[in-house]
Amino acid sequence: MLAEILLSEQQIDEALSHFEILLTHAQQPELELNISPSQALSLRANLAYANYQQQNWQVVLDHLAALEQLQVLDKNNLSMRFIAQVQLKQLKAAIVTNQALLVLEPETLRWWQQLSALYSQTQQHQKALATLVSAERSGLALGESLLRHKAQLYAYLRVPEKAALSYAQLADADSDTSLLLRQAQLWQQAREWQKSAKYWQLLAEHKPEYNLQYAQVLLLSNQYTQAIEALKLADPQEQQAKSQLLLAEIYLEIKDYSLAYTAAQRAHNLEQSSQSERWLNYLEALVADTKA
């Protein structure tokens, strides 16, 4: 068939003209054009492909819909439908097509990735996450980008411990400061103080100002001596008032009210605030009670 030859030679415009003439004739019984069922299938498939090359997305979908009335669409036809639907922002329809492709090629990571992305774009974040988890369970390696996306989805869905574990799978999880910070925050959200402290400590080795957060987590895990030592390493210029207030809180926990009051007083002298004033009033009363 001349049209098929033109198509194979990438003469798309000429091929389309011939295919459309054939389709018009095939739809007019009075012309008695003998087209076999297999030729009719081939005609529809070729029309879809030629229009796909021309990026006539809606026409592609129309021809594939007609073809689907005659046979089950194969992988290539489904791929064309999927891309046309995405280009036309028909995302819910694209999800259905993507699912069909996944049934045909479950070992192809691309289909899992695109399905997860479509769920995210349609605000179905739980399904987006479940898709990536299913891909892993089927034995596929997600790679750095998808692991990061999985971690972000866990965090968005408020599952901080699994988000932190997903970030930990990344290659530079123990060296990249932004990843260290994210893991520290997530473990803290999960109230896993020891694990959070590990990452705050690693961050503090890079930037001393993180010793303040490190000390806060140590305080939460009742490691008072270590918390005091961490505060000594905090940035003395920008965090002195905050450090002294935290020191007051530590001394309060170990019931050394005099040292707690002294620390709160230093904080108030450095940076007066309603918070430091409340601490002073509270600790002053405690000191007075112990002396009474």
From TrEMBL:
Name of the protein described by the UniProt record: TPR domain protein
Protein source organism: Agarivorans albus MKT 106
Domain of life the protein comes from: Bacteria
